[in-house]
Amino acid sequence: MIHSAITLSLVPESRGGPFVFWDDLPAACKKAAALGYDAIEIFAPGPDTIDTNEVTKITGDLGLKVAAVGTGAGWVKHKLHLTLPDKTARAKAMDFIGQMIDVGAQFKAPAIIGSMQGRWGDSVSRDMATGWLGEALNKLGEHAKQYSQPVIYEPLNRYETNMVNTIAGGIELIRSLDTTNVKLLADLFHMNIEETNIAAALREGKGHIGHVHFVDSNRRPAGNGHMDYAPIAAALKEIDYNGYASAEAFPWPDPDAAAKQTISMFNKLFA
Ligand code: LER
Ligand code: MN
Predict the structure, then answer these.
(1) Considering 41, 194, 195, 248, which one is annotated as catalytic?
(2) Ligand 1 atom 5: residue of nearest CA
(3) Is 70 in the pocket of ligand 1 (CB under 6 A)?
């Protein structure tokens, strides 16, 4: 069974980004629960900015789960990522993600590594960056294991990273790891740019996909672009995907309408 989730950003620096709800955790949780969402996905400024008791209380009272926690603020706020040339900076990036894994675990939620994968170039060769990323994923995957949570690794489109852009590239990367605790995030927006056939890529990802960002071709809420969802929903069912379809979309035309639109598409496709 596929579960519904919706994103909330608590990071002022990411304003303009693809998050449906903004700034106000209690209000976002109330709205998500009222619309029938199963979970909330939280993009926070850092591990020490999440009041774990508050999140546990608010979500618990509303019967909501936490689907995942993002780590991208490590890049957006601190300009850290896992493939920087400076060893100390890479270690800080690892530490940031490790602490986000610890925080997420308190809500039984995995952490997502998207923009924190960084990119190669200048003094950093592709091989060096791939080596560092692999090392980091091995360590973080094993770190997350103690909580019975995977690490969720997200291939991004070519304008955001040159590390891994497709599900096939993600599978190749995770097959090269020693840890077996890294899963892929299939973000339909990135896939629409990079994949030859989205449904075929999802089928190829059977057993490897741990999270889905449910969004349309133009990053508006599902149903507001030209994404052909029927084969996508069929592929996710065919591979027995039982994680979240999480609305990581622009709050278009506004957060409330985006939230309503997404849950109505979710119910049509997956309920
Ligand atoms: C960024 O484009 C994205 O899709 C996020 O989920 C990554 O942190
Ligand atoms: Mn995404």
Answers:
(1) 248
(2) 114
(3) yes
Task: Report CA(154)–ligand 2 centroid distance (Å).
Answer: 7
Would you call the peptide bond into 45 cis, given omega within 30 degrees of 0 as the criterion? no
Name every residue whose Cβ is closer than 8 Å to that of residue 26 and which is 6 or more positions away in sequence: 58
| Number of other CB atoms surrounding residue 173 within 10 Å | 20
Task: Give me the chain's average pLDDT, please.
Answer: 98
Is 41 an annotated catalytic residue? no
| DSSP reduced 3-state for 182 | strand
Q: What is the mean pLDDT of residues 178-185?
A: 98
154 in ligand 1 pocket by Cβ < 6 Å?
A: yes
Give the strand pairing for 209-213 and 244-247.
parallel
**Percentage of residues of the chain with pLDDT beyond 90:** 100
pLDDT higher than threshold 90 for residue 271: no
Distance 243 CA to ligand 2 centre (A): 15
What are 127's two structure tokens?
């091989």
Distance CA(210)–CA(49), nearest Å, equals 26
Read off the pLDDT of residues 183-228 as tens digits, 9 standing for 90 and up.
999 999 999 999 999 999 999 999 999 999 999 999 999 999 999 9
The pair phi, psi for residue 69, each rounded to 5°, is -120, 135
Strands 65-70 and 21-22: unpaired
Choose which residue among 154, 188, 217 to substitute to test ligand 1 binding: the one with the highest number of ligand atoms within 8 A of its C-beta: 154
The pLDDT tens digits for 51-94 are 999 999 999 999 999 999 999 999 999 999 999 999 999 999 99
CA-72 nearest atom, ligand 1: 8
Q: In DSSP terms, which residues pair with 5 in a beta bridge? A: 39, 246
